[in-house]
Structure formats: structure tokens, C-alpha cells
Specification:
The protein is of the alpha+beta class and 162 residues long. The protein is built from three helices and six strands. The strands form two sheets. It has a four-stranded mixed sheet with strand order 4-3-2-5. It has a two-stranded antiparallel ribbon with strand order 1-6. The longest helix has 9 residues.
């Protein structure tokens, strides 16, 4: 896994974000569906989703986001924390195992890696192939750990405490 390699290479501890950390970053202090508000109609100013540029059958946005495939980092506005591409472009793996709901989830923001189905991990944020309704801070689904798609990615964190 990349974070294990990076941790060995640098001598620093890197990891995937927990689902709670990911949602905190995605929301950036907001309570709306997306960090830019509740409107799907302005998605193309903020995120690379299923816009009108697509050459396949998923063309759901009412706007053009300027990219048929993945967009270069920073192509859209940052959220309130200054973080780019947290919604859209690629759906992001988090460390948490699949659980049907949050009953029994850790209340300290750590990844939930016990119980549930750890052969399937949570994926957050929606991607360039997703409809606007899926590009929102609360969107979550899961996928088998061996699954690889061009529209899956990850965001890492460096642990600063021992």
C-alpha cells in the first residue's frame, strides 16, 4: 500500500483519512449538502462531476465543467479550509471498513476498522462519473479493497503525534 511505502521511505507515519476526518474536511465548517451550498446547478464551478463534456452515457449536470476526464488538481474553487477537489474528480478511499450505518462507530474521529466487512472499504466524495446528487459531503458507498478504477483515489494524512 502506498502509505506504508511512503511511511517507510520518509520515516514519518502516513495513513488514509478516517471517514470522520474526510467528512470534516469536505464540509469545511458548513452544514449544507456541499461546501458551496445545496445547489447542484453550480457544481461545474466547484467540482468535476458528470458534466456535459462526457462522451459516454453519463451526462447529468446542467453545466459544463471543462473536463471530459479527470481534471488537474486545483481546477475548481477550494472549500472553506482551502482544500481542493474534495468533491468530484475522483471518489476517495478512506480507512474505515464497511458498516451499514454509524451505530457503534468511534466517537473520537478514528477509523472504524473493527467489525463490519473490512474486505470492503468506504469510498467518499463522488467522482467525474457521478451525477450531481452524489457530489455531496455526506455521500458514501463502499467497494471491495481489490477494486481499481480511474475515478478512485485517496487523500492521505501525516500523523503528527506518536
Amino acid at each position: 500500500m502506498y502509505v506504508e511505502w511512503l511511511s517507510r521511505k520518509t520515516g514519518k507515519r502516513y495513513r488514509l483519512l478516517s471517514e470522520a476526518e474526510w467528512e470534516y474536511v469536505a464540509r469545511a465548517g458548513t452544514t449544507t449538502s456541499r461546501y458551496w451550498g445545496d445547489s447542484e446547478g453550480v457544481q461545474c464551478k466547484h467540482a468535476n462531476g458528470a458534466g456535459r463534456e462526457r462522451t459516454w452515457d453519463v451526462q447529468n449536470a446542467a453545466c459544463r465543467d471543462g473536463h471530459e476526464w479527470t481534471a488537474p488538481v486545483g481546477s475548481y474553487s477550494a472549500n472553506g479550509f482551502g482544500v481542493y477537489d474534495v468533491l468530484g474528480n475522483v471518489s476517495e478511499w478512506v480507512e474505515d471498513c464497511r458498516h451499514g450505518d454509524y451505530t457503534g462507530a468511534p466517537d473520537d474521529g478514528k477509523a472504524w476498522v473493527s467489525g463490519g466487512n473490512c474486505g470492503r472499504r468506504v469510498v467518499r466524495g463522488g467522482s467525474l462519473v457521478d451525477e450531481p446528487r452524489n457530489l455531496r459531503s455526506a455521500d458514501r458507498f463502499w467497494s471491495s479493497t481489490g477494486t481499481r478504477y480511474y475515478f478512485y483515489g485517496f487523500r492521505i494524512a501525516r500523523t503528527l503525534t506518536p
